[in-house]
């Protein structure tokens, strides 16, 4: 069954007691030495019924999978028992969630239902009387909030591309104008436009964006800070994507759901709503692994019997009630099913009912494994006989689509600084010689491609000489997901620069479309 999801991805001891009222405790000892203020308690894996060796095997399986994981955090019985970030990603950085944002939007809807301000059986058109098409089809009339939540609105294709292309109308009006060929409730189709409409309904009822509505009711109680959420031209949050939070924030969100809506003794969501939102509400994709297990209210069911929020390229909030566990993941995965299978096969068998004897040797080895996590780095040579020739030399560029008029490379023993000059100013990015260097400030990348590349982000970079006259720069957007490979070829006074973004490099459906740059030394 065609669902539209794949299209959007490429366009878009104490444990036995339980922790129903898990407090936001600051631990005495931070086992894995993250350098952030933290609010989830930490404990050794063995104390919560998982061996350090099993988690080490999990990390080995991740590294052997060929998938770029950026971070993970595993909670058991309310304690963080393992966490890690693959350099250059870091605990301090927020991360683009893609469609994992949908589960946060569903949470806002749940809060309005609990408050009695909304019913899931309310007609969608009742919220937008001034934006309806001249002719309202019977299927559009029958569409309810629940159909938005369960991706059963009756559309034949994802409406989000039509919303994003709307030039002279609001996104809500553009959505309501789309044909609805199927009776709502009869046709599952993963449709990010549906989630945008849920956010628009929150705005209609409260006068607030999702971000403002959730700040006092979710983000502040869970001590989630430094987040942001993309917006539509009308200033509403994009709802189905675009939220950025830290890995620990994803874990807190999952723990809130595991605790049936309780946090610090306060009821943020009711148990009844969480059970309804995360249970099987509709069939989903047929014959598609963990996507075939059914869908709730912006949550997916999983083969082992639990549920998850997930986003493109492997952003996961996996909640395992039977195991009393939560797994938060950020990544750039080209095989999300493989990512999940790696977790199922390595973690689920390792979770024991009681605590285990401490294994100090394995725990020490686990700490070392976590400390050494790093994404693959391109290797060539850190020196070239031509370095001195082109060091600080300025190249005037031919006319190009980016408005870049000048480019310069400055080489040092630590790396390369690449400077781009346009009419509006200069942008300099540092790259370490076969070593990740993360630039201090968040910037908008000067050479954007389709997707989250346009979101301001800190950029980490490595550099290597792949040949005497060929400099390869590798960029990672560490507050987003993706990366870029920049190949700079020097030929006498001539310079040619080509690009290969990580989507184009790893898929066959997103070819690199950016033009090469060329210039001459001044």
Blueprint of the fold:
Layout: H1 5-11, H2 52-64, E1 68-76, E2 79-85, E3 95-96, H3 101-114, H4 138-142, H5 145-150, H6 160-165, H7 171-176, H8 192-206, H9 210-219, E4 228-229, E5 243-245, H10 247-258, E6 262-263, E7 266-267, H11 271-278, E8 300-301, E9 307-311, E10 315-320, E11 325-332, H12 336-347, H13 360-371, H14 387-390, E12 394-397, E13 404-411, E14 415-422, E15 425-433, E16 437-438, E17 459-467, E18 470-477, E19 483-491, E20 494-501, H15 502-506, E21 517-521
Parallel strand pairs: 15-17
Antiparallel strand pairs: 1-2, 1-11, 3-5, 4-5, 6-7, 8-9, 9-10, 10-11, 12-13, 12-21, 13-14, 14-15, 16-17, 17-18, 18-19, 19-20, 20-21
Helix pairs in contact: 2-12, 2-13, 3-8
What does this structure look like?
By secondary structure, this protein is an alpha+beta fold. Among the domains are: 5-93 and 246-371, Beta-lactamase (3-Layer(aba) Sandwich), CATH 3.40.710; 387-521, Beta Barrel (Lipocalin), CATH 2.40.128. It has helices spanning 5-11, 52-64, 101-114, 138-142, 145-150, 160-165, 171-176, 192-206, 210-219, 247-258, 271-278, 336-347, 360-371, 387-390, 502-506; strands at 68-76, 79-85, 95-96, 228-229, 243-245, 262-263, 266-267, 300-301, 307-311, 315-320, 325-332, 394-397, 404-411, 415-422, 425-433, 437-438, 459-467, 470-477, 483-491, 494-501, 517-521. Helix 2 runs parallel beside helix 13.
